[in-house]
UniProtKB/TrEMBL annotation:
Top-level EC class: hydrolase
Organism whose genome encodes this protein: Nocardioides fonticola
Enzyme Commission number, as recorded: 3.1.1.29
Active site: 25
Site (Stabilizes the basic form of H active site to accept a proton): 103
Cross-referenced InterPro entries: Pept_tRNA_hydro, Pept_tRNA_hydro_CS, Pept_tRNA_hydro_sf
Protein's name according to its UniProt entry: Peptidyl-tRNA hydrolase
Length: 198
């Protein structure tokens, strides 16, 4: 992939390895899996050694489809900024063409919000990205997981598997979030917000 074409960097936030695979905190990984499937390719190691990537095009078939790098850091969520910064530098992607897909406690399960910029709201992956990129002005696809029930600690909640009921709806949630990423890249923020900010 040449550096001169406008490239989008789409980052799925999560924790690596089978232990974390089904956790609420790993929704970003699940969405990038779906996007990789749509691009017809599997993740492979990037030469930086710090992330796995898929390079290709997303959106409309043919030459008009934007060039996209899907990425997943190979480190824990709270250290993901370094690999993201390395990839952004390598592919010459400015922050406004970076998209972070992440779990969001303040949005009910089965809903999402797409936005540009903002704080990290206590999310360690976003905090790490803000710190490494030197700005919070990147796009976010915030996939709702809701608040923990009762007195369950937030950390325990995000690092636990989706409930049986949620798992039934999860494929639709993932599909919808992948649609939102495609829409953001192809149609822009405003139209995407109108469609997906339920």
């Amino acid at each position: 992939m040449t550096a001169d074409a406008a490239v989008w960097l789409v980052v799925g936030l999560g924790n690596p390895g089978p232990t974390y695979a089904g956790h609420r905190h790993n929704i970003g990984y699940l969405v990038t899996d779906e996007l990789a499937r749509r691009m017809g390719s599997g993740f492979r190691a990037h030469k930086s050694g710090r992330a796995d990537v898929v390079e290709g095009r997303l959106g409309a078939p043919g030459g008009a489809a934007p060039r996209v790098v899907l990425a997943r850091a190979r480190c824990y969520m709270n250290e993901s900024g370094g690999p993201v910064k390395a990839l952004a530098t390598f592919y010459k992607v400015p922050p406004e063409r970076v998209v972070a897909i992440h779990d969001e406690l303040d949005i009910p399960f089965d809903t999402m919000r797409v936005k540009l910029g903002g704080g990290d709201n206590g999310h360690n992956g976003l905090k790490s990205m803000r710190s490494s990129l030197g700005t919070g002005d990147f796009h976010r696809v915030r996939v709702g997981i809701g608040r923990p029930p009762g007195r369950q600690e937030v950390a325990d909640f995000v690092l636990s598997n989706f409930s049986t009921t949620e798992r039934k709806a999860l494929p639709f949630v993932v599909d919808s979030a992948a649609d939102a990423v495609e829409s953001l890249i192809v149609e822009g923020l405003e139209r995407t917000q109108q469609r997906f900010n339920s």
